[in-house]
Every structure is written in C-alpha cells, then in structure tokens.
Design brief:
151 residues; alpha+beta; Nuclear Transport Factor 2, Chain: A; four-stranded antiparallel beta sheet
C-alpha cells in the first residue's frame, strides 16, 4: 500500500549520515536488496562525499503502487544539509531540497512483501528515455569521428 511504501521511504531517506539508517531499513528489504544497498554505500563516489552531507530528512512522496506486479514508483522529496569545508567547524551549512524518482520492486515472502530492488533516478521519469541511449551511436560518451582521420 502507499502507506507501507511511504513508511519505507521515510526510513530510507531519513538519516544523519550515509549508512546510519541501515538497521532501520533492513527489516523492509530482502537480503539481496540490503546487500546491494550496502555495496552502493561503499561505492567510491558515495564515500568521497559522505562527510560533506550531514543530514537527510524525508519530506514527502507521491506514490503510485501496482499491486499486480508488486512494484511502486515514487517521486520523493527530501531535505539535505551540506557543508563545504570539513576543516572549518564554524562554517555555514546549506540546506537543499532534493528530488528523486524511485522504483521499488517487492518480493512476496511468507506473510509479507519486502523490497527486493531499489532503482533511483535523479531526474523524473520523463528524462529516462533521454538518459538511456537507444544504441551505442546515440550515447553521448561515444565521440563522433570524421570519416577519415588522415589527410
């Protein structure tokens, strides 16, 4: 239901630091999804920025549940507090509202549904087609070269 999805998202997006909410989200997730979450937290990019983000706080979500496929899509808004310099204890903090589109896939286990996969996009669903290249030639990471490279 929307309420149980919101309950999970509240735990997922409310934390003081990266990983601080692990014990709160674990009961909502399958072992494989929880393991994937821990792997994601240890990703190099997350580790670089983890000390610059002091607080995450769930604000709201527009949730769409498909009970037939056991999936939910949510447009989540949460507040984040950033710092720019770790060495300056008296620095100013910046609060910013972030928005993510999240697709949750659930697995049916005896007596309950647990999150089996979490997919997060920074942009909205409308941007997914633009962000996912149709072919290798459409990819912005592949440079277009002239027909000949010699004269």
């Amino acid at each position: 239901s929307s309420d149980t999805v919101k309950e999970f998202l509240t735990q997922y997006y409310t934390k003081e630091k990266l990983g601080e909410n692990n014990t709160r989200i674990q009961p909502y997730m399958t072992e494989s999804a929880y393991s994937q979450e821990l792997t994601s937290q240890n990703d190099a990019m997350n580790q670089v920025y983890k000390d610059y983000i002091l607080d995450y706080h769930f604000e709201k979500a527009d949730i769409f549940v498909n009970q037939t496929t056991n999936q939910a899509i949510a447009m989540v808004s949460y507040n984040v507090t950033y710092v720019s310099d770790l060495k300056n204890a008296n620095q100013s903090k910046t609060n910013q509202t972030e928005t993510r589109t999240v697709k949750l896939s659930y697995s049916k286990l005896p007596g309950k549904l647990l999150v089996n996969q979490v997919q997060v996009w920074k942009s909205g669903l409308d941007d997914l087609d633009k962000a996912t290249p149709k072919t290798l030639e459409d990819s912005s990471s592949v440079p277009s070269l002239p027909n000949t490279t010699t004269k």
